[in-house]
Automatic annotation (TrEMBL):
Protein name per Swiss-Prot or TrEMBL: VCBS repeat-containing protein
Organism of this sequence: Candidatus Ruthenibacterium avium
Domain of life of the source: Bacteria
Length: 425
C-alpha cells in the first residue's frame, strides 16, 4: 500500500473515531489527534528503517511529516551517493530532545538498516521535502524547515557522500522550486528570500554543476510584490520559465513571469514585464494559476472587469486566462462568482458580448446576450439537491451544487463548454 492510499484509509478511520468520541464511545486522551490524522500505515521497509533508528537513538522517535509540497512522507528512499545502493533519509523529532526536526541517513546492510549519519535541522516543522539532482553522480536532498506557523522558513540542500551528510547551502526563503530550465540535465534551485525592505523582492538561482552549490544569478522582481507565495514551472512552445505568485503592497495578489533566455532568467515579456503584474492584480486569493490543458503551460487569471447586476456589484468577475510566456493571448474565458468560489467557463467569443442579470431567487443568475437581452443560460448555485425542473446538474463539491437551465439560443457546443467548465476555487 502506498503512502497516499494508506493515509486516506487512516483518515477515514480517524474520522470514525472522532465521531465516536463525540458520542462518548471512545476516548483519545493523551493522543495528539493532528498527528494521528497525519500518520498513515507504514510499509515493511519504512517499519524496518524506523525500528533501526529507534534502536540507534535508544528512544522512540516521532516521525515528522512535511506540511506541504509533493512529497508528504517523512521517509525518502534514494541512491543519494551514486553507489548503486539505496539509502533512506528520515525526518523526525524525539521526546527527550528539543523540538527541532532531525534528519538521519541510513544505509542498508543485507536485511538490516544502519544509521550512517544523524544531524539536527533548522526548525520545528518541515514545510517541504524533495529529492533533487543538482550535481553529477548522485542525488541531493532539499528540506524546507519552518517554525510552528510556517511564517519563517529555511531551505537546506544536503549532499551525501562517504557516509556523511553535508550542508551544500542554507537560505531563508518564502518559496522555492527546483527545475532544469537551461537543458543541462541538472536542476537549479530557484528561491525568493523574504524581503528585507519594501520593494526589495528578488529571485535567486543556485547552480550545482561545478559540484558545489553556488549563487548563479539574482533577479529583482517588481517593486509592488512584497511576499512570494509560490514558484511554479511553466513552458510554452520552446520557452521555459517560472510563474511567480506574490502578495501586493497595496493588498491582494498578482503574478510575474520569468523566462529562461540564453543561459539566464529574465523578466517576461522583455519589453513590458510590468504589464503582467498590473493585469493579474486581484483581491480574491482563491484565483490561482492553472494548467488548463494539462500540457505544462500555466495560465494566469486576469480580471479585466466585473459584471454588475441590479442587486450585486463586485461579486461576478470576468476572468481571462493568459499564457504570458508566449504572446499573452487569452486561452480561456469565464465568469468567477467570488461569493461561492465557483468559476464558470464560457465560450471565448462571448467575451464582450454578454451581460449578467439577476435570477428570480438568491444565488440564481442569468447570462444574457448584450445586444438582444436573450437569456443564454440560467445558473443556480446552491445546496447539493435534486435538480429542479429542467435544471441540469453540472457539478457538485461537498454540499454545493451548480445547476444550469439552458436557453434556446445556447447551441449544443456552447452548452458542452459550460457543462465541462465548472471549477471550485
Amino acid at each position: 500500500m502506498n503512502i497516499k492510499k494508506g493515509r486516506l484509509i487512516f483518515v477515514l478511520c480517524i474520522g470514525c473515531l472522532l465521531m465516536l468520541t463525540a458520542c462518548g464511545g471512545v476516548s483519545l486522551t493523551g493522543q495528539n489527534v493532528e498527528e494521528l490524522l497525519r500518520a498513515p500505515q507504514l510499509s515493511t521497509m519504512q517499519n524496518a528503517v524506523q525500528t533501526a533508528l529507534n534502536h540507534y537513538l535508544g528512544e522512540t522517535l516521532q516521525l515528522k511529516y512535511p506540511r506541504g509540497g509533493e512529497e508528504m512522507a517523512p521517509f525518502l528512499f534514494e541512491d543519494f551517493d551514486g553507489d548503486g545502493a539505496q539509502e533512506a533519509a528520515v525526518l523526525y523529532t524525539t521526546e527527550a530532545g528539543a523540538k527541532t526536526v532531525n534528519i538521519a541517513v541510513l544505509e542498508q546492510d543485507g536485511s538490516d538498516w544502519l544509521v550512517a549519519y544523524n544531524l539536527p535541522g533548522l526548525g520545528a516543522e518541515v514545510a517541504q521535502a524533495q529529492v533533487v539532482t543538482l550535481t553529477e553522480g548522485g542525488k541531493q536532498l532539499v528540506i524546507g524547515y519552518a517554525n510552528a506557523n510556517l511564517t519563517e522558513k529555511y531551505l537546506v540542500a544536503y549532499g551525501y557522500a562517504d557516509d556523511q551528510l553535508h550542508v551544500m547551502t542554507t537560505q531563508a526563503y518564502d518559496a522555492y522550486t527546483a527545475q532544469d530550465l537551461f537543458d543541462t540535465g541538472l536542476q537549479q534551485l530557484l528561491l525568493v528570500p523574504p524581503a528585507t525592505q519594501p520593494g526589495a523582492l528578488s529571485m535567486q538561482v543556485y547552480d550545482g554543476s561545478s559540484g558545489e552549490v553556488t549563487l548563479r544569478q539574482t533577479l529583482l522582481l517588481d517593486e509592488r510584490l512584497t511576499r512570494c507565495t509560490a514558484l511554479d514551472a511553466t513552458q510554452s512552445g520552446q520557452r521555459r520559465g517560472i510563474v511567480v505568485s506574490a502578495e501586493l503592497s497595496a493588498g491582494g495578489t498578482a503574478n510575474q513571469v520569468v523566462c529562461a533566455d540564453d543561459g539566464a532568467l529574465v523578466l517576461w515579456p522583455k519589453d513590458h514585464p510590468e504589464d503582467v503584474v498590473q493585469a493579474s492584480s486581484r483581491t480574491d486569493e482563491a484565483l490561482t494559476v492553472r494548467d488548463l490543458w494539462q500540457r505544462g503551460t500555466l495560465y494566469i487569471p486576469c480580471l479585466p472587469g466585473s459584471f454588475s447586476t441590479q442587486s450585486t456589484s463586485q461579486r461576478y468577475y470576468a476572468v481571462e486566462w493568459r499564457d504570458y510566456l508566449s504572446d499573452g493571448s487569452t486561452g480561456q474565458f469565464g465568469i468567477f462568482d467570488s461569493t461561492s468560489g465557483v468559476y464558470v467557463r464560457v465560450p471565448l467569443y462571448w467575451k464582450g458580448e454578454i451581460q449578467l442579470e439577476d435570477g428570480l431567487e438568491e444565488n440564481v443568475w442569468r447570462i444574457c446576450q448584450k445586444s438582444t437581452g436573450e437569456t443564454l443560460v440560467v445558473l443556480r448555485i446552491g445546496t447539493n439537491e435534486t435538480p429542479l425542473g429542467a435544471y441540469q446538474m453540472l457539478r457538485t463539491k461537498g454540499s454545493v451544487a451548480v445547476m444550469a437551465l439552458f436557453g434556446e439560443g445556447c447551441t449544443p457546443s456552447e452548452r458542452s463548454i459550460l457543462q465541462t467548465g465548472i471549477q471550485f476555487f
